[in-house]
């Protein structure tokens, strides 16, 4: 069973530290990224191999 993560914020910090740390875990899975800017979320998800991009916290949860 995997632990699904949702990133809040399409940021450099997440790219530099969080994504690789989550993926290094045997059961870590990044399910989605959230940004208040939908276009930014979509681009970030595409660039980082994240399957979903959302623009609200409700959609992330």
Walk me through the structure:
- This protein is 46% helix and 25% strand.
- It starts with a strand and ends with a helix.
- By secondary structure, the protein is an alpha/beta fold.
- A three-stranded parallel β-sheet has the order 1-2-3.
- The longest helix has 13 residues.
- Helix 2 links the parallel strand 2 and strand 3.
- The model has no long low-confidence stretch (mean pLDDT 97).
- The protein is built from three helices and three strands.
- It has one domain: Rossmann fold (3-Layer(aba) Sandwich), CATH 3.40.50.
- The protein is globular, with a radius of gyration of 11 Å.
Q: Any idea of the CATH class?
A: Alpha Beta
CATH topology, by name, is Rossmann fold
Strand content: 15-25%
- The whole-angstrom Rg is 11 Å
- Taken from the alpha-carbon principal axes, the silhouette is globular
Element order, helices and strands? Answer: EHEHEH
- Describe the largest sheet: 3 strands, parallel
As residue ranges, the low-confidence spans are none
Distance between the termini: 18 Å
* Tally of domains: 1
Structural class call reads: alpha/beta
- CATH architecture annotation: 3-Layer(aba) Sandwich
How many helices?
Answer: 3
Q: Strands across the major sheet, in which order?
A: 1-2-3
Mean pLDDT score, rounded? 97
Q: Classify the helix fraction into a percent range.
A: 40-55%
CATH homologous superfamily heading: NAD(P)-binding Rossmann-like Domain
Number of strands: 3
């Amino acid at each position: 069973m995997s632990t699904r993560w949702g990133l809040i914020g399409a940021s450099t910090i997440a790219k530099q530290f969080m994504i690789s740390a989550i993926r290094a875990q045997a059961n870590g899975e990044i399910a989605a990224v959230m940004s208040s800017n939908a276009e930014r979320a979509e681009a970030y998800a595409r660039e980082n191999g994240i399957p979903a991009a959302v623009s609200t916290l409700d959609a992330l949860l």
